[in-house]
Amino acid sequence: MRPIQKSNKLAEVCYEIRGPVPEKARQMEEEGHKITKLNIGNLAVFGFDPPDEIVQDMKINLHNAAGYTDSKGMFAPRKAVVHYTQGKNIPGVTIEDVYLGNGASELIVMSMNALLNTGDEVLVPAPDYPLWTAAVSLSGGTPVHYVCDEMQDWFPDIEDMRRKINSNTRAIVVINPNNPTGALYPVELLLQIIELARQHQLIIYADEIYDKVLYDGAEHVSIASLADDVLFVTFNGLSKNYRACGYRAGWMVVSGEKGHAKDYIEGLNMLASMRLCANAPGQFAIQTALGGYQSIHDLVGPGGRLLKQRDLAYKLLTDIPGVTCVKPKAALYMFPRLDPKIYPIADDQQFAYELLAETKVLIVQGSGFNWIAPDHFRVVFLPNSDDMIEAFGRIAKFMEGYRKRHGASF
């Protein structure tokens, strides 16, 4: 029979966080191996539970959740998001500017589908959260990666960004706080990005899903709060700040200069209607989450579990010869660098395969985040301290063996 091929639209789409190496890990689990999964920020499996009041409110309202809602979402949670944007000093947001989705991921894809034609380009950071690159490609556009500079705390290289803007560029993606690096951008840098968007009439897409997962007293500033003459589309949700990944409750906010974007907004409305609505049980969690006690502060503040585990993971990683890492100021990840003179890696996916096979620890190779060289990988620091010491100890032993096998000295 004639083979059934996947769509050509998927040719440039990849999502290595759930790619071939995790598939190998799944097969190993089926064979009876216990795999330590440091590949994905799935908080619940590491004992980070959502606030109990969210769970209870969803239970109470479940009997009201069987019907379709408004295509943009229920009134009360959208109003709660409006209040949230006011707290973030984002001007001019009304309830009509808020779209609820099955997680921010659905809305990211929707925002690209509504915008892009073949040949359009979108500036996406390198490294990036790979859904952004995939969403641009799947929507018929071309992702153009601007470099984030590890030597400058992983901040975007504004000059590299400027060089890559041309007549086909439609938008700039800003992931802040950043996944996978844990970087947090200062206001001065955000203002420079806004000026680029202003000069070239570009949309700014702001992925702010980790805006409360902040360490060492750091503060997050929404880029959309810094101007009203540029079009901003800001994404957030319950997955990380409220440890509710599986609830798939996210939102997208359109703000700034909207007068010239009426046709684009009409496209967003069309796509929101086509998917009928976001899941209703998840919508019921949003108002309670945003208006309730912000328990994330207990986890990231002094003595908090996430803070302690970040510090432990940083020490365990940087104690390994030839491994360096910019200490994250936010989010749940580290993106360490392997000195190429000590770890001569040609194929970082193969490196991740070998590490998995030998240690039963699952990481994501740096190229899975569209990084430009095979010298980085990403890990989460979510396992409890004892499990993390065990897992990172196995990684350290593997690295020692790797150095010996490849004749590298330190």
Automatic annotation (TrEMBL):
Presence of keyword Nucleotide-binding: no
Superkingdom field: Bacteria
Cofactor: pyridoxal 5'-phosphate
Boundaries of every Aminotransferase class I/classII large domain copy: 34-386
EC top class, as a word: transferase
Keywords, alphabetical: Aminotransferase, Pyridoxal phosphate, Transferase
Matching InterPro entries: Ala_Aminotransferase, Aminotransferase_I/II_large, PyrdxlP-dep_Trfase, PyrdxlP-dep_Trfase_major, PyrdxlP-dep_Trfase_small
CDD domains, sorted: AAT_like (cd00609)
GO MF annotations in UniProt: L-alanine:2-oxoglutarate aminotransferase activity; pyridoxal phosphate binding
EC numbers for this chain: 2.6.1.2
Signal peptide: none
PANTHER family hit by this protein: GLUTAMATE-PYRUVATE AMINOTRANSFERASE ALAA
Family: Belongs to the class-I pyridoxal-phosphate-dependent aminotransferase family.
Protein name, UniProt field: alanine transaminase
